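Render this sequence as a predicted structure.
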Amino acid sequence: MKYAIFAISLLACACLRAAERPNIVLIFLDDAAYSDFHPFGKPPYPTPNVERLAAEGVRYTQFHVPQAICSASRASLLTGCYPHHTHVFSAIRPKMPGLDPKFPIMSETLKAHGYATAHFGKWHLGDIPETRPTARGFDEHAGLLVSNDMWRHNPVWRKQVGDDPLPYWENGAIKIPDISPDDQKHLTGWATEGATRFIRAKAGKQPFFLYVAHSMPHVPLYCRDEFKGKSGAGTFGDVMMEIDWSVGEIMAAIREAGIEKETIVIFTSDNGPWEEFGNHAGKTPFREHKGTSFEGGIRSALTVKYPGQLKPGTVNDRAFGSIDLFPTLAALAGAPLPKKPIDGKNIWPLIRGDEGAENPHEHYFISIDRNLEAVMTSDGKWKLHLPHGYRDVVTPGNDGERGEVKTSQIAESLFQLIDDPLEENNLLEEQPEIAKKLREAAKEHLERYPIPAK
């Protein structure tokens, strides 16, 4: 009898520990600008579900990614490592290895700690068997392995790489061999259906990590017919309204499953807008855009909801980076981090808004491709641009056509981001000591992670 009581006691403890581990829902958009959703901006279309998420959670105004390009941003998010550490730069092409499996990712760590895991949407971290989602700790997966423009219907892409089809994958196998324009209309819907089904299947049974990485609003833009023309603000507005609908569906599934209080919901984007596509790109209040190390490229809107832990309806202006999400979420889940060192830190006190909480970093490092282009103090105040060229939009395109760009240059420049978030007033001469410290930090970063040869 006493052994039965002991076994029941152990089971009860195990259930308690499982209940204490929060579910994690990470919604990650592609090329969404800082101001593309209310209440971060005032776009000419409604986004009531993102507004509700922000009202029920915290809105963060100084959240940065270390590289404003698809694959590099995603690798940093899931590994907690800088691009110079993982050697994942820019955008991975089809059939390329991608992120080296020697770098553990969030899904693998959480799965080893008893989490159910799923990924729906865009992957873009490798397209060989050992780097696809089901080999990287995801129990379930459905979506594209690369960007939705890497297909034969894109004349620019076709000219570069040929006529290869773009397949849609599901659980380690190709479900649709050649994605058509009509299939593109359903990418947001399919990801949402997979996400809500997974939530309902796992709720209350097992803690879960759900990674919803929408292919939109990366060009080419598509939405289902019921959203076409709904926004009154063109195709881009229609696409954003469908993404907002998706957020609403995911939040409703969480509420209906009765797991709202024990679920963390995170909503953000990999980088800023692809501005050269004009009316098929979002709008940022900051300087420049995707593919640059200016704030328009690397500062993403972020909302986090965690009932009982985060004060709803508040705004948090503390600076931190996407490399910090992995170690922070692992700590909340009680999951030990990988033995392989990572660059991110547990910044939960900053996210929670604790009075007197300090960022454990000294600096954040920003790169484009293999080039280290900027260094920022961890309080988000000072940012030093090293001399570099950047893609500058001359004439934006229209209706899916790419506009004209040129390469512009920026000399070494120091900006005080709190008062000058548009990076207009170079204080290099007025603040030589601050510039010197940031310059030295850049040198140390490159000594730690030398730039690999192409």
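Summary. Residues 72 and 83 are 6 Å apart (CA to CA). Residues 364-448 form a domain with the Arylsulfatase, C-terminal domain fold (CATH 3.30.1120).
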